[in-house]
Amino acid sequence: MKFRKILSILLIISVAFVPLSCNDSFLELQPATSISKDMALVTIDDVETAMYGVYDGWRGMSGALIIIPDIICDDFFPVIGYTNAYGQIIAWDYGADDMGYVFGGAYNNIVQASNIINKLDEGLISDEYKDRKNVVLGTCLLSRAMSHFELVRAYSKRYDKATAASDLGVPIVREQTITFPTRNTVQEVYDFIFEDIDRVINKEEDGSESNLLPSIANNGNTEFSMNLLYAFLSRVYLEMGDYQNVIKYSSLVIDGGSYNLVDNKYDLEDLWEYDGEGGGKGDGSSEIIFKAAITITNGGPAIGATWNTGQIGNDPRPDYVASPALLDMYDKKDYRYDAYFMDNVTTPRAGRQTILNKYPTNPNLNILNVNQAKLYRIAEQYLNRAEAYEALGNTASAQADLDAILSARNATAYGTGLKEQIRNERRKELVAEGFRFFDLRRWGTGFTRVTNEGCIKGCNLEVRASDHRWLMPIPVSEMTSNENMVQNPGYVK
Questions:
Q1: Reduced to 3 states, what is the DSSP secondary structure of residue 280?
Q2: pLDDT in tens, 1-25
Q3: pLDDT tens across 379-394, in order?
């Protein structure tokens, strides 16, 4: 069965992004796990099977979520002989035909989740299976909220309480319908996100909570949980500048004790090489709140190919290498340096370079350049909370959270003043995890990309905080197919 149009976009499935023609609709390209609104979901087994299609959406979208927000900024640059992957993006010369980013993947996730939510809301599944039904409903509601957030923070202005009611957000999608949607306001999108989250928290009249999701995922860290919901809310409130709520929800995750910072190089190396599943000398699983599961049979995005396009057993062939400015922030005794990078790599035409080694190919999967994306980690929660404490003037608590990261990584602070040190530590810790673009935009700082003689494009680029490209363009396929869509300022329709 072929889906009808809701939005015409770029679909992101198993690679970072896959360009489609201007006439393609993402709903006309139905992946194997897509759930039509007309599909029969009449048993608890039906809806549980459908739920795993929602997880599959996050697996498919994970490459774009990680790669583009990092290579676009100042931590990496392309070297002579690279494949021209993301060429317009790295040069900050992109337009509506270059940046599908997560638009297609997120709306695909939203439609699939909404179809399941709406079926469950019809009350067709017996309350005999209430607990199982709640997990499916909670998973789909949280996925829909997370997907709308990825869209609104990429394609809309940062949340500003004074202007959110008039700033253009993204279309809110609640069901699969034939329509040409307009853009809701930023405030409306955030309100809808919190509406879905409130349903998952499920407060009773007496103020107690009957959460739809378990505190800890039933299947390790590859399924949704209340801890993921709290971690997500911390990220949302940091984007909104609501620092009290950042502290509240990060603290729920940190103080709950289910996740811990690893404090030795072997566990850290396991976290990134084996995705926290063991196989090496350590166990890094305690850091992961949620990762997009990949198996040998289902495959996934080759995230590591951006930084190493070589073959297994051969010398690395990087497209993008690490900036000297980033590398200078690490002490060589910092556990992260050896876990995150590979020094003195001989490139085909750009001499010796230092490349990212955070996605080196999981030996348990043995699929070239494929590792599971760790989309939420406990380290982010410490850094979110440190930033929030510092913004509110609680320097002692901010310093304590910063010190927790530094101690676990055997590192020293870099920079002058607490605010700068927290920001630098965030850059060092979360490099190549999809944060840099949004961090710089949130701070309003712009950047200068420091490169070396091996650089081929976007070399020593300076981007000001006022550049219109801090708002990503609505994809050209959507603009062509939807007469009601409004493009972001500075881009040709």
A1: coil
A2: 333 333 433 233 223 333 333 333 3
A3: 999 999 999 999 999 9
pTM of the model: 0.92
Q: What is the DSSP-derived secondary structure letter of residue 178?
A: S
Looking at the structure of the chain, the number of domains it has is 1
Query: Is residue 279 domain-resident?
Result: yes
Residue in the block written with tokens 């997907």: 147
- The reply to whether 273 falls in a domain is yes
Backbone angles phi, psi at 353, to 5 degrees: -140, 165
Domain contains 9: no
Report which of 289, 373, 276 is spatially closest to residue 14, judged by C-alpha positions. 373
Under the banding of pLDDT at 50, 70 and 90, the label for residue 355 is very high
276 assigned to some structural domain: yes
The C-alpha atoms of residue 99 and residue 90 are separated, in whole angstroms, by 11
Angular region, 301: left φ>0, alpha ψ -120 to 50, beta rest: beta
Q: What confidence tens digit (pLDDT) does each residue in 258-304 have?
A: 999 999 999 999 999 999 998 888 999 999 999 999 999 888 999 99
Structural domain for 283, as ranges: 259-289
Q: Quick check: 165 pLDDT over 90?
A: yes
